[in-house]
Specification:
The chain has 497 residues and is of the alpha/beta class. It folds into three domains: 3-86, Arc Repressor Mutant, subunit A (Orthogonal Bundle); 161-384, Aspartate Aminotransferase, domain 2, CATH 3.40.640.10; 387-494, Aspartate Aminotransferase, domain 1, CATH 3.90.1150.10. It has 16 helices and 15 strands. The protein has helices at 3-11, 23-36, 49-56, 60-72, 113-121, 147-159, 174-188, 203-214, 229-237, 254-260, 283-296, 351-365, 370-381, 384-410, 436-445, 480-494, and strands at residues 45-46, 76-79, 83-86, 197-200, 220-225, 241-248, 251-252, 266-269, 299-304, 328-333, 345-348, 415-417, 425-430, 451-452, 470-474. The strands form three sheets. An eight-stranded mixed β-sheet has the order 4-11-10-9-8-5-6-7, with helices on both faces. A four-stranded antiparallel β-sheet has the order 12-13-15-14, covered by helices on one side. Strands 1-3-2 form a three-stranded antiparallel β-sheet. The longest helix is centred in the last third of the chain and has 27 residues, at 384-410. The radius of gyration is 30 Å and the shape is elongated.
Length: 497
């Protein structure tokens, strides 16, 4: 290619002198792009540095720095006395048909079947978006959290770096697991050793790990319906066949599952506080579930996501505390007790399963971030954890009472409250013939989040697995004034005003 044409290409290279990026980095990027798209081809000689400076109005050092970076990455070859050339080892670009002007670039090839399953699995899960507003579900009261204490504990750990700041145990920080053993025994009746506990990056990671290593593609798994869609997502991503099992006033209908899908390899349950209906699994149902699991060598995943917040007595004993056959994996989260951004959860596995879960955890992310674990261990050991739970339990109870009173005084003819003795949310059923989706859309248009109970039903479930029309209303994070406003908006919507 003639030198004059090369000079034209060089002179046209885009440089922005007002940008924060150094000029030599811009020049390096522009030359590299010209090489990769074929404007500067292998073997082509570049102008001498002084000529380069004249063409672009930059310093010689800028050009030298850009040349040095390009040479280090293999784009340029230079020989004293001969000049600088585009490396002959740079392959010529392969031309491809241009995409239609109106279309966005697509995937190089379709996702694998497994990839498509993973992507589709959580498509129906609703995520929090935008600022907090009534009646956001599953959200704890964050403004009650002692962030000043937490910041001090984390800072203290950062000031004392030790061997824990390298790669850590995939199972988690041992002092934290030891403290969790003591806490879980006292609060949930769980008997375990630190070796049975695996710290995870939230309960969602725990559910994904369990679905992946306990189930083979095609295995059946029981899933509460209505139930937590964030749990059915990992099951489907693992290739399991999710079998919806109805929930009534006593919790999961074990007899229905046994009659229609006895071959299931796993059952997912929220026995202490069922999501979204708020019921607790009765003792006969718990014993029946454990008997079925033991007889069929099936796993039971107990998701105990908010049992700390029980307002009419002590928290209920866990299902795991009744397990005598090593069937139950207990999954806990700290998102509801601490704050969701912490992303810390844990599993309590039967002894025979624990080491396999640790190895699977190591495959996924090696180990959960260590400093938050260390700070949490200090938070528990110094008594802050227990005080925070007591304080937030009282606060949540006050807000729960305010919501129940508000519904009774303003919307009693429109809504019937479900169980309200636990958790961060309240299930409310329509007394009239309202359409959930219509009500939900109208609320969102007026700045109020109204989660339909139908959102929690499995899309493939029959009528027995679908709750009566209603809403799930979050209260723990909602200030009284915002709650009162939300009830006014909901009242206008339900009355058609």
């Amino acid at each position: 290619m003639p030198a004059a044409h090369v000079n034209q290409i060089i002179a046209a290279l885009p440089l922005d002198r007002a940008a924060a990026e150094p000029l030599f980095r811009q020049l390096y990027g522009a030359i590299r792009a010209a090489i990769l798209d074929g404007r500067l081809s292998p073997g082509m000689r570049l102008p001498p540095t002084r000529e380069f400076c004249r063409l672009l109005g930059v310093s010689r050092q800028t050009v030298l720095n850009a040349y040095a970076q390009l040479a280090a990455e293999g784009y340029l070859d230079g020989t004293v006395g001969r000049g600088t050339f585009i490396s002959a080892d740079v392959p010529l670009p392969v031309s491809a048909p241009a995409p239609p002007a109106a279309s966005a670039p697509g995937l190089l090839r379709p996702l694998s079947a497994r990839g498509q399953g993973v992507v589709a699995a959580m498509r129906q899960v609703a995520f929090h978006r935008g600022p907090l507003r009534a009646f956001r579900v599953g959200m704890p009261r964050i403004d009650h959290f002692p962030f000043d204490v937490w910041n001090r504990l984390e800072a203290r750990r950062w000031r004392r770096p030790d061997h824990h700041f390298g790669y850590s145990d995939p199972a988690g920080f041992l002092p934290l697991r030891e403290l969790l053993c003591v806490y879980l025994k006292a609060s949930r009746g769980i008997h375990c050793t630190p070796q049975q506990i695996v710290i995870t990056s939230g309960s969602q990671q725990a559910l994904f790990l369990l679905s992946t290593i306990l189930l083979a593609p095609g295995d059946c798994a029981w899933m509460e319906s209505p139930g937590y869609r964030g749990a059915s997502g990992p099951l489907r991503a693992a290739g399991a066949k999710v079998f919806p099992v109805p929930v009534d006033a006593q919790g999961l209908d074990v007899a229905h599952g046994v009659a229609h899908c006895p071959q299931a390899k796993l059952a997912y349950v929220t026995p202490s506080h069922q999501l979204p209906l708020g019921v607790s699994m009765s003792l006969p149902r718990r014993l029946a579930l454990l008997a079925w699991a033991a007889q069929n060598k099936a796993w039971v995943v107990e998701d105990d996501y908010d049992s700390e917040y029980r307002y009419t007595g002590a928290p209920l004993a866990s299902l795991q505390s009744l397990d005598r056959d090593g069937c139950v994996v207990y999954v806990g989260t700290l998102s509801k007790v601490m704050f969701p951004g912490l992303r810390l959860g844990y599993m309590v596995a039967p002894p025979a399963l624990a080491e396999s879960l640790v190895q699977a955890k190591a495959v996924m992310d090696r180990h959960t971030a260590i400093v938050p674990q260390m700070a949490l261990a200090d938070f528990i050991a110094e008594g802050h954890f227990g005080r925070h739970i007591r304080r937030t339990r009282d606060s949540n109870a006050e807000r729960r009472d305010a919501l129940v009173r508000g519904i009774a005084s303003e919307l009693d003819e429109q809504l019937a409250c479900g169980p309200a003795d636990s958790g961060l949310d309240l299930c409310a059923y329509f007394r009239g013939g309202h359409d959930e989706e219509t009500v939900s859309r109208a609320g969102l248009a007026q700045g109020v989040e109204l989660r339909p109970l139908g959102h929690y039903a499995d899309p493939l479930a029959g009528p027995a697995c679908i709750a009566p029309p209603g809403l799930l209303l979050g209260f723990a994070a909602i200030p009284p004034a915002e709650m009162a406003h939300g009830l006014q908006v909901l009242g206008r919507i339900l009355r058609g005003r």
